[in-house]
Amino acid sequence: MLLSEIKEKALELVDNLKLVDFGFALPYTWVLVQGPKGKALGVAMTLPEEIQRYTNSISEPSLEKFIEKADSLNVIERTLGLAAINAVSQYHIDLSNAEWVDVLELLPETSGKVALIGNMPPLTKELRERGYDVYVFERNAKLWDRDTYSDALEYNLLPEMDAVIASATCLVNGTIDMLLDRAKNAKIFVLTGPTGQLLPEFLKGTRVTHLASMKVVDIKKALLGLKLGSFKGFEKGNRKYVLKVV
Fold first, then answer.
1. Residue 17 sits in which domain range?
2. How many angstroms from the chain centroid is the CA of residue 64?
């Protein structure tokens, strides 16, 4: 399980970091850490449709305890764990080789089959306008539209794709391993969105080729947006980036 491998790598990087604050909330669960170089904020999208009658087994929160639960079957623990891993990643991340571009710039100009894992209407619209054959998969039925496929069809259709742009929430809902296995012919596999704040070296040796995420550049502004449950409030404190996984 990829999350199990990622958590072990993240645990090796927590020595000089302490947990400052955290929140399991909408739209994002967040973890704030601090070390000698300053503070870093990590997030993971909260998926209400995945939450049932779970009880968090962590009674004394710590950075290490959160990360150790990143591969838990309990979605609350898993979300907090991934947010903690992202906080550690953002503290250590080197963006000197980052491209400050939109995810669309990663795709070749020639047409082809592109899978979107997660319904992202603005991206879908632009891809179709550029001539790509777009397949949109979505697990949450509330987000379906007339051109959306159930995620149950990913298993059969992903091997046909030339490129995959996957919402990094696939890490939260536990489908990342299946997606990477089935997208065996895709030349580009992008994890996108704030949940994809991982260190690229955590994904070395997988089929993931790029991370398209957000760097929190104004922690105070972003944190206020998170506490107020605001997508736009959070994103105002961020800057988008793309990193290649090498």
1. 2-92
2. 20
Nearest to 30 by CA among 239, 214, 245: 214
Predicted TM-score of the model (pTM): 0.94
Same domain, 24 and 64: yes
* SS3 (DSSP) at 93: coil
d(CA 21, CA 243): 27
Q: What is the CATH number of the domain that holds 22?
A: 3.30.390.100
For residues 219 and 193, is the Cβ–Cβ distance under 8 A? no
What is the spatial order of strands in the sheet that 28-35 belongs to? 18-23, 28-35, 38-45
Convert the pLDDT of each residue in 11-54 to its tens digit.
999 999 999 999 999 999 999 999 999 999 999 999 988 887 77
Residue 79, φ and ψ in degrees, nearest 5:
-65, -45
Q: Say if residue 84 is in the same domain as residue 112.
A: no
- Looking at the domain assignment, is residue 24 inside a domain? yes
Of 47, 68, 92, the one marking the end of a domain is: 92
Task: Write down how long the chain is.
Answer: 246
